[in-house]
């Protein structure tokens, strides 16, 4: 009989105080700290990292910068690295080895870093992200039920997505970002996104994404 190994658990630890940061770096000689901001850049950046965690064994400590600012400031003091959010810093023996920030957190930037510095896993990883999709499900269902116009739905959806700083998987990010493209366009006014139906039948696209979210 062929045995199948259980998925390996990913270390994803909240670092809420300077003491948490110090203990995390002491417990894990090779580790990374991810500073999470307050908008969809955090969701996008962590989604990229999550794809590498499926194949590589790297403990991650994350800091909600607005909520746990002393911990974030402590990382800046330890490393001398200018603060950004989102921000990914790779550590070895408590010393920073590599950092990448904001929209530069891409597969192209991280691939050589993980390949050269982070060991591969012997099996698949189970990365327990924190992002729930229920607010999106409820909004999409309300639209499909006729409670919102196309424009009202686009307005509420883009606002929800733009302000979402959850630590999500790449799959969730790809699904949620599929409807309306770049949410940064919303800062200049909803008209910059164009009419909701410009990308094809909106109801059909919403139903398809809702089905895939499960």
TrEMBL record:
Residues 136-213 form the Colicin D immunity protein domain. One of its GO terms (biological process) is bacteriocin immunity. One of its GO terms (molecular function) is toxic substance binding. Pfam families: BrxC, Colicin_immun. It comes from the Bacteria. This is Thioredoxin family protein. The lineage of its organism: Bacteria, Thermotogati, Deinococcota, Deinococci, Deinococcales.
């Amino acid at each position: 009989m062929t045995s199948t190994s259980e998925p390996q658990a990913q270390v994803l630890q909240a670092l809420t105080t300077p003491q948490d940061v110090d203990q995390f770096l002491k417990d894990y000689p090779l580790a990374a700290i991810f500073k999470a901001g307050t908008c969809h850049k955090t969701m996008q950046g962590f989604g990229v990292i999550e794809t590498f965690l499926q194949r590589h064994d790297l403990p991650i400590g994350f800091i909600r910068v607005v909520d746990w600012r002393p911990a974030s400031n402590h990382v800046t003091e330890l490393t001398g690295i200018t603060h950004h959010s989102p921000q990914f810093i790779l550590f070895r023996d408590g010393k920073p080895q590599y950092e990448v920030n904001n929209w530069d957190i891409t597969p192209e930037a991280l691939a050589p870093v993980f390949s050269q510095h982070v060991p591969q896993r012997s099996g698949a990883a189970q990365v327990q992200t924190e992002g729930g999709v229920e607010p999106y499900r409820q909004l999409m269902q309300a639209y499909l039920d006729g409670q919102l116009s196309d424009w009202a739905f686009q307005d509420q959806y883009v606002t929800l997505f733009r302000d979402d700083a959850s630590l999500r998987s790449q799959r969730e990010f790809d699904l949620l970002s599929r409807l309306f493209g770049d949410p940064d366009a919303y800062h200049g006014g909803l008209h910059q996104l164009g009419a909701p139906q410009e990308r094809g039948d909106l109801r059909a696209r919403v139903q398809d994404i809702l089905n895939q979210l499960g």
